[in-house]
Structure formats: C-alpha cells, structure tokens
Amino acid sequence: MRKSLKLSAAAIALTLALAGCGGSNDLESVDFKDQGKGKAPSVSFDTPLSVKDEDSRVLDEGDGEDVKEGDTVLVDAAVFSGADQKSQGDTYSGSPITITVNDQLKEKLPKVYDILKDTKVGTSFAYAKKPEDNSSQGSSGGSDDKDASAVEIYTVSKKLKKSAEGSEVPPQEGLPKVTMKDSGPEISIPEGQEEPKSVTAQNLIDGSGDEVKDGEKVYVKYSGVTWSDGKQFDSNWTKDPTGFPLDQVIKGWGEGLKGKKVGDRVLLEVPTDKAYGSKEQLGSESQQPAGPLVFVIDILGTSKADPPEDSQGGSGMQQGGQQGGAQQGAQQGAQ
C-alpha cells in the first residue's frame, strides 16, 4: 500500500514538472489537431521555437464537465522538441497524470491553477519554458539545440468524483460495521465472527457511473484494517485519490472491484490467500499486514492503465507498479 502512495506522489511530482503557464505570445505558431481518444495530438509550430519566459496558450476549449477549485482531474501530456518538432513521449495512449486543483498547485504553479480552477474537461493547452530552464533540468528541448524550448501539450481528459455518490444500501448482517467520520470510515470487526474465507464486496452506496473493467486503472479513496484487531494499516481518505491498475493489485481488490461502478462505496472483505498472506508466508521482517483484511473504498473514476512491467518483490496494494514507458518519455522530455 505504501508503495502505491509513493507512486501517487511520484505522479504528482511528474505533473508539477510537466505543467506550467505564462503570458507571452511565443506559442502563437503552435497548431494543434486532435487525433481522437487514445492518440497523441498532431502538433506543428515554427522552428526553432524558443520562449523568453514561461509561456502557455489554450489550444482548444473543452465542452465537458466544469472543473473548479478542489477537483481532481486526469490530464494527458505530450512533449515535442522545439528544435525539430519530434515527439519526446506522451501519455495519451496510456495512463494519464493526476492533478488536484488545490493550494499546493496554486502556490507552485499559480498560472496552471488559474487555468484549471475555471475550465472544462476536454480543454487542451500548450506550455513552454526558457531553453536554459530545460538545460538546467537535464533537457535541451529534446535535441542538441540548446536554444530551443520543449513544447508540451496537455489535455484535461476527465474529472474524478470527490466521493461516492448514489443511493445508500442497508448494511448486511454479519459484516463489519462502518461509521463515516470527517477523517474517513471507522471499521469495526464483529466480535466472534469467523474470519472471511472468500472475497465479499458489499456496496454501502450504489453509484451510477461507468463499470470497472479488467485492464483499467481505478481511482479511489480507501481505508484498510486488519481483521485480527481492527487496526488501520493504511488510508488515503484525507489525501488525493490514488490510482491502481486493476490487474496489478492484490487478488481481493481485483475480484471485489471488477464490475463495480464509479460512484460506489464498497465494503470489501479479503481472505488471507487473496491479500498479502499469513505471518508465516510474509516473514518477521515484512511491513505488509498479515491475515484477512477489510477495506472501505470509494470508486471515483477509471482510466486506461499502462501495461505492467516486471518487478522483483515490491510492496503495497499495487503489485509491481512502475511508471509506463510513455509516461517516462514525457517526463524525460519535460525535465
């Protein structure tokens, strides 16, 4: 679980490295053409392109949901060499970047905050920074020409829900009791109840959004406790949403969340063999919680996931869980 939260932090760091905004007209030559869902846009501009200061320009106004302060959005990114227009990588064909429109964004990137706090899903914009800023961070606009700026393109692809939304479902007898607090759910394990032997996924709120499918990335707020003592071992309830590829999580999550809907709040019981394992299997030095686990999960959205990469060992809800090649390419191009 902790590794996944680190991955979430890494995604935020990538976002802050990629995004930006300014006020000059140096990006006026950028021509943007949408190539459809899952494909990077076609971009052309005068070369070599070099800006005197950080610069941004809205390329296409979206017509989707309104995005406001406090919202979390999924953003696709593509990076092009300012010297020769060559692509340096993109996330349009894989997993998007997650950005929360909050005070942290306002402090670090006020111009980006100004755009995102009052925009719509579907909006695309361009960004570039001074060539010397590229060079100081290990990039020269994507080529050996140190006088060119990297040209970065961003599209707001989706807005995540802030919490579960829908009809409340009466609690099922014999399952853990859930009490919602400002800090998140409190989960009480029923006394004398036998530990779960199979996965149970009971809705507490029935959402009406898209169905969660195999191969997708699911964005959630969650809290987890151990069945043996009811102690919380992890939670992101008071933090930004976390995204997990459904086929790269513990088996209990994959089985329990498949077929659920965006907007659902799910009480999930996971037996030992579908969680991390027993104490004997994990060993004395493991930081993973042993035995059966219980989660409360709000499903806030889904997206396409990057393909899994081989990983030795690893910890956390996500099994493996490195960034995909496309996202790494975009990161390298923007640094």
From TrEMBL:
Keywords: Isomerase, Rotamase, Signal. It is an enzyme of class 5 (isomerase). Residues 1-19 form the signal peptide. Residues 33-69, 128-210, 275-335 are annotated as: Disordered. Its EC number is 5.2.1.8. It catalyses: [protein]-peptidylproline (omega=180) = [protein]-peptidylproline (omega=0). It comes from the Bacteria. Residues 51-69 have a biased composition (Basic and acidic residues). Residues 215-303 form the PPIase FKBP-type domain. Residues 313-327 have a biased composition (Gly residues). GO terms for molecular function: peptidyl-prolyl cis-trans isomerase activity. Coiled coil: none annotated. Transmembrane segments: none annotated. Belongs to the FKBP-type PPIase family. This is peptidylprolyl isomerase. It comes from Rothia koreensis.
